[in-house]
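User: what does the whole thing look like in 3D?
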Amino acid sequence: MAITRETVLHVARLARLQLDTHELEPLQNDLGRFLEYVETLNELDTSSIPETSQVAVEEAPLRPDRVQPGVSTERALAEAPRKAGGGFAVPAFVDE
Amino acid sequence: MTMNALDRSIPEIAAGVASGELDPVALVSESLSRIAAQSSLNAFLTVSSEPALAAAEAVKRSRANGEALGPLAGVPIAIKDALCTLDAPTTCASKILTRAAKDHVGGSEPSQGFRPPYDATVVARLRAAGAIIVGKTNMDEFAMGSSGENSAFGPPKNPHDPTRTAGGSSGGSAAAVSAGLAPGALGSDTGGSIRQPAALTGCVGVKPSYGRVSRYGLIAFASSLDQVGPFARDVRSAARLLEVISGRDERDSTSSTKPVGAYEKACEASVKGLRIGVPSEYFGEGLDPAVRTSIEQAIAKLESEGVSVRPVALPHTRYGIATYYIVATAEASSNLARFDGVRFGLRVEPARGDLNTMYGKTRDHGFGREVKRRILLGTYVLSAGYYDAYYRKAQRVRTLIRRDFLNAFEEVDLIAAPTSPTPAFKLGEKVDDPMAMYLADIYTLPASLAGIAGLSVPCSPTPKTAERPSLPVGLQLLGPAFAEERLFTVAAAVERLCRP
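Assistant: Here's the predicted 3D structure for the full assembly of 596 residues, as structure tokens:
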């Protein structure tokens, strides 16, 4: 399946990847080749087959609801590239 | 202490430390000096010399005080850098978890990798059992790769031939164990990332059933596939490690409440009467003739021990790669959204620009080529208009692949097949061809999709030829979910029967 440059740019935007121009063509080719390869799945009629999204998880028991110590604010912020006022600092943004 | 105490099996080392015959500090020192001497293998991203020596001293003191020692007392263990460790940086071999020096606040270590605020559950369990963490091993970035070449820090090398791959993604752990730098290691397996490097370096590697081992503190790649498992030089050592790390963890809701098996004891059981299935789909085009010979010989040896060998059909095997790369990239694109330059790791902040520019630049700069490729693929297959055609389709084929195994296990106790279609290939050979690289995992992906138990155990190496040296071959054993004991029983027999 042929993938256009616009499609690569659209998907990259969804994935928050600001790709350099020189990266686009190879990725466009790789995506195209891959999507061509996965066409093999269409040989199979799966209309009556249920989906598997998770295996071997028969139960997911909840833990007891009790107060436990967590990670301290200081600890949580220790690796932050920028912090301000006891929180993570980010550049200014407006709604898209 | 004799010079080769580190080369003993893990149960022997732990027993020697418990009896006082072996000094844990000397064991750890020997491991650290071997790591330094073999640094050209590029097996480690971080060596934890000081914390390791301090932990060894603590084991020594415990013994002197007459305290009970754990089942891994004094045993040096290497940890894949995808697992969080309190006392060592954790980078997943990615630039995005490695901050530029100018941004780094505090800390005097040479690497500026991410310092996690907690130990992964498996790491905590190893420490509680007395194991000594000697360092963090090299890997493909975010565990995406089959050769180690996607590491941001250069690939680990195969100790059998340093011009060849140690496999991937857990190549550093495999190289470390194969070269005797540590008697055991942990890796993670999403589509073969423990079994394939184990096969290519001549180690035992176990991919436990999905849910057998906690994933808490494992940096997520594809959450419905990821499992942590051990590497060791011999089957009993791998069994001891799996027993320690397995079991329910409150912090991972997908971890199973099923009791942990007696894996080490299972190594002593007889294989007589067991039924082993051999799938013809795993012996087709692309299988190296020398690998085929070695696998067939190992299966014939099992037959001579009273195992009943019969053909078994896994008809959807050929759809494994397409299914896996849709499911795994979809999950990865979602999991890797957390690397955005806000809470940890790298941030690239342009002088002008809003939040989205910061995200976009950070992720473009921080992720390597294969990771970007997979994030784009995963985003594409989940995007509006394509979800049904790709993602939902793959989840349905995943059901068919899973049913293949469930049907086969109605007739046989275990499946035996090659782990990898070829022995270790040359570094650089497939690096520019992602589809060729994906094909290297053809025999390991289906079991991951099915969530069943898998193990790779060395059988006879390939003969030396003009083109290549003698190289290790791994026999892959697959069993039903939570049938790890059976895998160990047969693997121990293979180890005994194929010993040179």
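In plain terms: Chain A is about 35% helix and 5% strand. The helical segments of chain A are 5-14, 21-37, 73-77.
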